[in-house]
Design goal:
This protein has 107 residues and is mainly beta. The chain has no helices and 10 strands.
Amino acid sequence: MADGHTITIEQGDQHVRVVHGDQVLAESDRPLILKETGSPVRYYLPPEDVRLDLLTPSETHTHCPFKGDASYWSLPDAPDLVWAYPDPKPDVAQIKDHLSFYEVEVL
């Protein structure tokens, strides 16, 4: 990666839970742990472990020069709470279709 920017992805075995209000949005024992220069650690969860039925696709899309283009999902009271990279850059291909949340509880 350019200018000392690094991204590492490892398979985790922590139990990760995402709760918003009183709803459990996701629960997984198989998170991908992404560490990126200058950013907090992010957990990317397999779609099977996420309550996609509670989420609504958002109009928001962002571009990361290192990961690619992200798509977002929202809750009625929490816009753009969740994101994923449907077609990530080759260096981070493992995160394809995995979902990440801003607030994650690691148990």
